[in-house]
Amino acid sequence: MDPVTVRLATVDDAEVIAAIHVDAWRYNYRDLIDDDTLARRDFDSRLETWRRELELGAEVLVAVQQRAVAGWTCLGAFRHPPATRPDVRLATQDWGEIHGLYVAPSFQRFGLGSRLLREAFCVLEAQCFRDVGLWVLSNNLPAIRFYEAHGFHDQCRDQDFEINGQPLVEKLLARSPGGRGGA
């Protein structure tokens, strides 16, 4: 494989980010999320969302290989939507978050996800976040193993949610951005 470069995404990357988002969801979450739900993930709505997010300054890193964007990660301060449980809100108040990390299915298993994660840690550490968290589907064992291999630990703060009526559970994983002990 050609060398990988990682750079900050621009609005011009919205189309490929949206395509990877939809393709990776359908590929990685098959057998975890209902086929109906996966089929409804549409490119046009993802494209609109990513254009808006990038225009508003979302911090997204893209991995470029073979002159093509092959993966991305979105990062920043830990998000606290209104439904966030008080214990999660308190525990994560000074944290950074990996909001999403996806690699195009044809580029998976070549180290791009690891490279994106390492670059995200550098950015978040430079921003002085004391810990970094992320949410992962509790039944997504390959993703959990991937994140654990990169120093993340289960915070035992699972939360229930649903997508199109399908009940799901996500786990909160965390680590320090510099890899020193952590959460």
What would you note in describing this structure?
Helix content is 35%, strand content 30%. With 183 residues, the protein is an alpha+beta fold. Strands 1, 2, 3, 4, 5, 6, 7 and 8 form an 8-stranded mixed beta sheet that branches. It has 6 helices and 8 strands. It has helices at residues 14-28, 35-40, 43-55, 86-91, 112-126, 141-149, and strands at 5-8, 59-65, 68-77, 95-103, 131-137, 153-154, 159-163, 166-175. Helix 1 (14-28) crosses helix 3 (43-55). The model has no long low-confidence stretch (mean pLDDT 93). Strand 2 (59-65) and strand 3 (68-77) form a beta hairpin. The radius of gyration is 16 Å and the shape is globular. The longest helix is centred in the first third of the chain and has 15 residues, at 14-28.
SSE layout and pairings?
Layout: E1 5-8, H1 14-28, H2 35-40, H3 43-55, E2 59-65, E3 68-77, H4 86-91, E4 95-103, H5 112-126, E5 131-137, H6 141-149, E6 153-154, E7 159-163, E8 166-175
Parallel strand pairs: 4-5
Antiparallel strand pairs: 1-2, 2-3, 3-4, 5-8, 6-8, 7-8
